Amino acid sequence: MDTQGRGRGDDIDPADQWVINPATGEYELRLGPSAPQPAVPRPRTGPRDGAGSQEGTGRTRSPGRETVPPQRRREPAEPSPGRRAGRAPQKKPKGRRILLWTGGTMAFVVLATGTVGYFYLKHLEGNVTTADVGDAAKSNFSKDEAFNILVLGTDKRTGKGNKGYGDAGSVGHADTTVLLHVSKDRTNATALSIPRDLIVDIPDCPTTLEDGTETVVPGVQGARFNRSLGEQGRDPGCTMRTVEAATGIKPDHFMMADFNAVKTLTTAVEGVEVCLAKAVDDKKSHLKLPAGKSVVEGEQALAFVRTRSSFGNQGDLDRIKVQQQFLGSLVRKMSSGDTLTSPTKLLKLAEAATEALTVDKALGNVNTLKDVALELKKVPPKNISFLTVPVKDNPAERVKATVVLDEARAPQVLDAIRDDVSLTEVKQKQKKEKAAVAARLKGKKAPAAEVRVQILNGGAPSGSAQQTLSWLQVEEGVTKSENGGNAPEQLKKTTLEYAPDQAEQARRLAAILGLSGSAMKPGESVVNSQGLPAMTLTLGKDFKRPGVKLDGSGGIPPEVEKSTADKVECAS
Are the beta carbons of 416 and 556 closer than 8 angstroms? Predict the structure, then answer.
């Protein structure tokens, strides 16, 4: 924190005020004997050194800035480059970046565990800048559903220390974009990078300009994706609408951060380990590292995620891979014991992340920040997948400068995210479930043509029974299937009931649908329209659509490259 109303005087380190209580295992505020000890941090009154009204920008500072009483005093220190001392939101720098939720949310998790932690979260809420993007974002955050957060980085160069990076006149395009999908059951997450040079149709976008004027920015067909932000006043909501139009996946919220966030976040954790297949001496980004493992922070970390001329074919797609590897390393550092048990690191992380963020209104609330943090904490690093949406060179160009979606590979990846299907193998949590799968699915399977089944809709989307019937007959060869209409009651889970002599048929259908052992119900057969015994397949509320396996084992095409947060990879 600095002296601009961020909770300390000129020479006080807030990290020294938080220690672990050995009796409770929680972080608590501890004050020195010479300091006053109010029950809660006292709110600061009056304007923040010129950071008062933000009228006409469509962006507001969240209320609730609170000060944290001091414990001990130190000599004044120079403010870090990531600190925004009284700048208006529209002047906030926004550059290329990676998923900054990692650092900030890890800090929120620990801080949210106690009563005093709540008041510090209120202070952090005051650090965050919010932007109203209308109905492009949800009005609240749901802890019970899957959610999508669009993480944005722009090429705008405003801000201390950033003018030397070139392109000083940029209005701030969508230079780095990552769609983060977190599964409903919190067992997995997918971080999908969207190339800035992807050709898309940008839809019309209602937005509020910097002077407060409300307008609708006309859409553009066949444009680069990066034009969905900044140009003609397009705000993050325009980028969210463009993502939905291009992928069919609707972002629920957005986070946008700046160059300085990479610097301050990596410095807060005392560096992030990276690995290079060969030595790099990049004159453009000023990155100079030996082959093998190195630890980078601050300016060096920023150079690592910005460089492109040192990797692959020196294009943006290869730079995206490097950024994904960097993020995986950052996730591992956040999850390490020396970070989670250090009050100093956690507080620096929280300050760095919130100082850098611009978010939609729903995420600017202190309780929402806490909830997002706690939900993200549930996802194991080994089940966080990083990949780029499958693309190919634009066939309309002689000189290959842009890309288009690869219609052969992209749909399966996008469908998996849309249908909340994990891109990693998520192990079953219950031993009973494993035993049931082994017992009921093991054994001989009947040919698909011999499977007789009646399909009922017991809570699936309207029309699912007929759609599944057509898919089974045409795509899977289950020709002896029929639509039985609606089930007498709705079910949470899809089930397959079969008689003992239909076990082989049941195993075949279970393999086709991805049914677990617990979904298979030994019982009685029914008589179909031909007067023959048939099994009963009841589609429950967990059913997405035909072709999406119910056990989440559909996976992605093997030729689609991906990585996970638990694996160490060397950039080449």
Answer: yes
